[in-house]
Amino acid sequence: HGQKILGLASGGGQQGPVFAAHGADVTIIDISEKQLESERAVADREGYPITILKCDMQEPLPFADHSFDIIFNPVSNCYIENLFPIWQALLRNNILCLNLTLQRTRP
């Protein structure tokens, strides 16, 4: 309750509303306007306050250090060529980052 959570490249309305429903202060960033529109629609429909911003996670983020308690990053790492600067920034701020990466397996 009251945790400040950043959804890193997690627009779409799947995770933000769940965190908000549990009392978190949620900020969602994504580079896709379509994903952000979905996030907005779900937040509005469910009545949850969520801050939604268009950002590229490969660029410096528009937040001061130590702005979040948790960063949630679903799947999007598979679209980034060089993850080192992103993870380095997260570690520098002592942030817990939850990451889900789905990988196809070949039969």
Query: Structural class, please?
Result: alpha/beta
Query: Largest sheet, described in full?
Result: 5 strands, parallel
Number of strands: 5
Distance between the termini: 43 Å
Separate helix tally: 3
Biggest sheet: strand arrangement:
3-2-1-4-5
User: Rough shape?
Assistant: globular
| Average pLDDT figure | 81
Spans where pLDDT lies below 50 across 5 or more residues:
none
Q: Helicity level, as a percent range?
A: 25-40%
Strand-residue proportion = 15-25%
Relevant terms:
single chain, 107 residues, alpha/beta, 5-stranded parallel β-sheet, 5 strands, 24% strand
Structure description:
With 107 residues, the protein is α/β, with parallel strands linked by helices. It is built from three helices and five strands; from the N terminus they run βαβαββαβ. It has helices at residues 16-21, 33-46, 84-92, and strands at 4-8, 25-30, 50-54, 70-74, 96-100. Strands 3-2-1-4-5 form a five-stranded parallel beta sheet. It is globular.
